[in-house]
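Following up on my earlier thread - several people asked me to post the actual chain instead of describing it. Fair enough. Here it is, all 617 residues.
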Amino acid sequence: MTKPLLKLLALLLLTGTAFAAESNWWNPAWTLRKKVSIDTSGKGLAISEPIGTTAVLVRLHEGVLSFMSAKEDGSDLRFLASDHKTVLKHHVEKWDSLLNEAYVWVQMPDLKAASATDIWLYYGNTTEAVAVDPAKESYDENTTLAYHFADASKAGTDSSPTGANAGGTPTPAAGSLIGAGLRVFGQTAITVPAPPFPEWAPGAPLTVSVWVKPSALQPNAVILSRRDGANSFILGLDSGIPFVEINKQRSTAGEAITAGIWRHVAAVVDAGKVTVYLDGKSYGELSAALPSLKTPVEIDKDSSPAAASFSGFTGELDELQIAKTARPAGFIHFAAANQGTSADAAKLLTIGADEASDHEEESEMAKHLSLITDISKDLTIDGWIVIFLCALLAVVGWFIAAGKILYLNKIEKASKEFMNRWEKISSDLTAIDHEDADSVKNIGGSVSSKMQKLMRESPLYQLYHLGSDEIRHRMKTVRQVTLDAREKKVTIGLSGRSIQAIKAALHGGMVREVQKLNGRLVFLTIGIAGGPYLGLLGTVIGVMITFAVIAKTGEVEVNSIAPGIAGALLATVAGLAVAIPALFIYSYLSSRIKDVVSNMETFIDEFIAKMAEHYKE
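Reply from S.P.:
Thanks for posting it. Predicted structure:
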């Protein structure tokens, strides 16, 4: 294969790729996008256990996002699945346009293990007001608590669907693991009210996870506890050893953590077994089932008199989550890696470069067409039938109009050429003498066969030909009485009756030419008269069906009425769209046909006058 051909193929490939990318653009109003890759295969961070639905943390900073191109509050951020159609739920935990820093949580439905998943981050819509997803929509229905400890006003705000906001929350500490975190001193318990926080049923599954950064390694430091009489659940650190204690039974111990370092601690209760995870890896176990607990949950300290041997946790907390299900090991591993700041986080999630849209701003016409497209989705089958009939009328009418315009253009050109020839012989009609019939066809020998073929399209030529034939058939010899021997005794002429008969024949020929000119124009009149009625029929049926549905369902509101009415009115629009152009084109064609008819009438009068003058009786 030659080098020029290779270059051509490469150019076509690049062009096709660019076109495909542009055609996949989600919305022209969003001018920038970038690919976000989540890789749980061996090329990224290998996670072989199932993960499921999870909220993925996307860290944004000046190196990966142009904050100047986004809205000041980041409300224009949108996350799309790889199909560029499915919008993923998300919420912004923190957006700082001064420091160019943001933390965004995106719900990934059924994230697969040992595979690479691509999503798209769209932004750059700074002109339109865009709605923001509530934080609770970013978590699945199994998440019962999600504390980001984001800022002073949201330190105890629950971002999960439960809405169990904590009381007695201290001011968050800036510069924590994920934005702001919670600095605690083990003096006062932070209370999660129950309800709305749900009770824990006996033997029910449970998952608790939290990021901890102890400032000191204390014995029996409580991170989270829940006591109800003799039943208890405690998650804590015993001199740096993460543990879960259920009804005074404690999980097995592992290696102690060090102070001043962020670590991810999680506990999963399922089928009478408790598994403690540290940084996403199995750390300890306990054979115990979850007891019945209905009381409020306490964070940082256990204020119960039965907890005299326990101390409060001193240090920082961040991203506390509780779920009413047993999260799989892959879920815990993914959360620890994704939310942390180690090298694994960079392997797991990567953010690509910006891609700019070539779309121009949508014009008003495009917006109208988009609205009509949306309205058509609510059109009933009856409306579609009416629109189909209107479209059929429009196609037939335009086809006939186009053919008629071409025909009129042709006869106009032919008539113009004929009139140029007619002026040369009109002063002497002997050019169509009956002794030479071919002289009639070629107008006294002054027209070539090619020009004669053109002039045959003219109705004036047809009338001339008809009149010439009538003259040849009706001319007679007339004997004159004279005393002068030098004068002709015989002349050729036409009687008065013959002239009248020829005139009648010419008018008959004109009638046939007019019929040819007006042929099939009836389809345009049908479109003019029938289009609006068809559209009205579709609208009436659509409105009738809309009100029938409302009466059956009982939903009387604008959102239930407007789509059906708008769809029904689309049928009327279709009928008018057929009738209005048909009316204009019919008026135009009628005007041109009247001009042709006037020319024929004038020609007949002129022909009769010339004939009576040259062929006197």
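Residues 1-22, 432-437, 477-483 have pLDDT under 50 and may be disordered. That should answer part of your original question.
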